[in-house]
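quick one, 370 residues, struct below
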Amino acid sequence: MSAPRVVVFGSSGYAVTHLRRARELHDAGEIVFAGICDVRPVSPEAAALLPVGGVISADADEVFDGARPQIAVVATPPHTHLSVALAAVGAGCHVLVEKPPVLSLAEFEQLASAARGTAVQVGFQSFGSMALPALRAALAAGVLGKLTGVGAAGAWVRRDRYYGRNPWAGRRRLGEAFVVDGALTNPFAHAVASAILVAGQADMLPSRIEVELHHARRIEADDTASARLTFPNGIQVVAAATLCAEGQQEPYVVLHTTRGKARWWYRSDWLEINDTRIPVGPPIDLLRNLAGHVRDRTPLVAPLSHTRAFTAFVQAVRDSAGPTRIPAQWVQSIDDGLERRYVVHGVDRLVEAAAEEMALFSELGVAWAS
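---
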């Protein structure tokens, strides 16, 4: 089979990363980068990434007709993922959709049903990490004993500029549409989804989901949160994160076992098993993997089915009462203008403690989380 033809929906924000990757694979002869679709004008810089002869249009039908793609990359805002992905599979395309793929289990089932006969890959780059087979091998060999739970921790600094980057940043809803742009459902979605995957529960539905949402900023969504997912087999996943960190921290996943701990810093692919660093190879690229699936049925590393539990979590956050305000005495404002950021005192240690102790914020004795 010849190289599959690819179109990208979206041309700004993180979509630019997909445009660049599509051009790289095009230049390597692995795909044909055939078109860009965006309801907003495509910038000259983004348009320049499309090879000569490619189609640019705000109309999806024009892109499907003109580019004749086998693969559609969906890098549009989260609340538009379902409609764009449905249009793509309806046109016979395989899909790479950014995270979160959809915002409810009903949408998940709708997309899964519509995509029968086509593949849907989800943009969790961490799912392509070589740390995953290394961790599975260590568990299978008994090096770590029995898995008892998985924690995830993330602490980042985000400034006013971050929340002004688009109309849905920091929102729970945008008009009538759910957005669910909270700390654990978007910037640290990889932490939650990776922890669930490592726990072996990605295709399962949790029997219980507890969420504690807070915000230091005056935004609709949470900027600081903890959550616990309990699965029918008793395995628990606890995730904690903040965008009001004292300092930028590398997010990680920690496996709690009967014979120690393993930690995986998924962005840098640094793996540590019982205090011993384990080298891992380069990750599997998701678009290359999907192209291989289209050509010769190479197994997907991040199929939609592996995000069922994560989608249940997103739905729980969506349907929650929303975040509570962190009192001013716990919060410090630093810098001015678009560089302003908020810091929650002691939150870096709190996030780490939640993952390491498998506890929610309210269980760690924090006054503002009680």
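The chain is about 30% helix and 25% strand.
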